[in-house]
Specification:
Distance between the termini: 29 Å
Oligomer: single chain
Radius of gyration: 19 Å
Strand order of the largest sheet: 1-9-8-7-6-4-5-3-2
Strand content: 5-15%
Number of strands: 9
Order of helices and strands: EHEEEHEHEHEHHHHHEHEH
Length: about 325
């Protein structure tokens, strides 16, 4: 039942998915002032949380995508917009993504919801919020959906729902999509920082026997997963990681109002990342598949004042479907 017909309608140049994808990080100027709190984890590491507070009883937890941070344009713009609507926000910088390398060999991956669970419980135990909403983008959206689904039987009543944007919910097929020529430039951007991080980890942890020759030759995510993700996080293979980390099997278990927005022209996503059936058969999981938007783009025009469709859509779902009072 909960499949929305999207009202996202961009001007002509933004009907190109690649143009829309690249415009936000390259040309948008969103920044947000944060108050950072470093939290010590159960495994003797740390996680940096960046708060933007306006005195609300509702806190929105934002989770960024692959190699993003609280400084990512979509994180800053969403924080600012929700603050204006009377909601507090906190940006969860995944391990190694806050500007300071984390202390352990392991950083993060698409299915590492134990870190989400830790952060959620830290927020609930240490702050007096009445409501907590989780909003994730790309990899962070996968964590959001997987967490809300897998925790459905024991999730805190203070967690009211979530929103996920541009999410490769089926990692197996999405990685095949990413291997295509159309995504070569994006891979090069991701690989520049990821390879450097893995090299730095190998330097700090010499017992981690990294095959540096293979790292330099890596041209697919599967190669990096074989070298790092699989051995560090105890998966059997990249395929085992894809299956276990994907959020799609958890969508039917979601019992809090939760929206997924995936654009049909998102070059990162396969056809298996558009869960119409799961939404039709759920009372809680909502899906919206605009024809345009790219990957975490959803820019409308060259006029800055018109480029908040995504932020307004998140706000509207919080107000109308999660039913939180906003300004």
């Amino acid at each position: 039942m909960p499949v929305f017909t999207s009202d996202y309608s961009p001007t002509l140049p933004f009907k190109n998915g690649h143009f829309n994808t690249m415009y936000r990080p390259l040309f948008m100027k969103d920044i947000c002032s944060y108050l950072r709190k470093r939290v010590t984890t159960w495994d003797h590491d740390f996680i940096d949380l960046d708060f933007s507070l306006v005195g609300s009883k509702t806190l929105v937890l934002l989770i960024h995508g692959l190699e993003g941070s609280s400084e990512s344009k979509y994180m800053a713009s969403t924080s600012k917009h929700l603050n204006k609507k009377g909601l507090d926000t906190v940006c969860f910088n995944l391990r190694s993504c806050s500007g300071d390398d984390n202390l352990l060999l392991g950083t993060y991956h698409s299915g590492k919801t134990e870190d989400v669970d830790f952060v959620v419980n830290y927020l609930l135990d240490n702050y007096e919020y009445e409501n907590l909403i989780i909003v994730g983008f790309s990899l962070g959206g996968n964590l959001t959906l997987k967490y809300i689904g897998e925790q459905s039987e024991k999730i805190s009543p203070k967690i009211k729902g979530g929103v996920a944007v541009s999410v490769p919910i089926d990692i197996t097929s999405a990685e095949k999509e990413m291997d295509k020529l159309k995504n070569k430039l994006y891979l090069e951007v991701f690989f520049k920082t990821i390879k450097n991080k893995i090299l730095e980890k190998a330097h700090k942890f010499p017992e981690f026997n990294l095959d540096k020759t293979q790292l330099f030759k890596a041209t697919k995510f599967k190669h990096l997963e074989h070298l790092y993700t699989v051995p560090v996080f105890d998966f059997e293979s990249p395929e085992d990681y894809w299956e276990k980390a994907s959020s799609k099997p958890y969508l039917s278990k979601i019992k809090k109002p939760t929206l997924l927005i995936n654009a049909k022209d998102d070059s990162f996503l396969s056809k298996d990342c558009f869960p119409f059936d799961e939404a039709y058969n759920s009372d809680f999981f909502f899906f919206e598949g605009p024809n345009y938007g790219g990957h975490v783009g959803f820019i409308t025009s060259f006029k800055p004042a018109e480029n908040t469709w995504l932020e307004h859509r998140i706000e509207r779902f919080i107000r109308e479907n999660i039913q939180i009072n906003l300004k």
